[in-house]
């Protein structure tokens, strides 16, 4: 049974991500955890002491959060009633990132599926700050869904790589699970800068062939382009439904999102993005 965490701030963007998850895993037995975290604007005494529920003190923010979560559950039941899917709601007095880290460990979460922006997402920003912090901090495969993207079966997957990773089952299983559901083709894209692959890179490339032996895959090599340009161009040529990357240290992803000013990046994703941590 897949365990999938769905953080929500009750925005249309987070509902769009929930819909994507329900469609993506519609033929899988899954338990979904609907999570909303809240912190009061002004910390009252009972909040400073701890969770108000511990002291039998009414907690209106918790009640409101639970009510909103139940509304989402009702909407799911109405629009996507699926006997393979079960749900648990979690309204928690905490900040989002520590709570997600805690739930991932306690519930052995397989995927986090979330929107790329929150309720106040600016269009020129690629990912909202919450999404970026989840990418950085949480050791779990994360599917980020753009707010304008409506579900498409991921038949064509783009997987950019520098072949610098000694691939393991942990790295590739989240991707292989999706390819097995949709008989997807994986387009493995390497961007080179005039140098031949090293012996280590060739070895890692061979490992990929072994992992993808039961999957349709193609190797692509592009020279003298930035990774951003290569991804954008490939998306224009082929109908890519899902971008997948492994967040290894010093990776393109890390350089792009954590060492640059987010809203200055001329690289805007309009397809779902699966980021797999290098270390779990």
UniProtKB/TrEMBL annotation:
Pfam families: Usp
Domain annotation UspA: ranges: 1-146
Stated family: Belongs to the universal stress protein A family.
Protein name: Universal stress protein UspA
Organism name: Yeosuana aromativorans
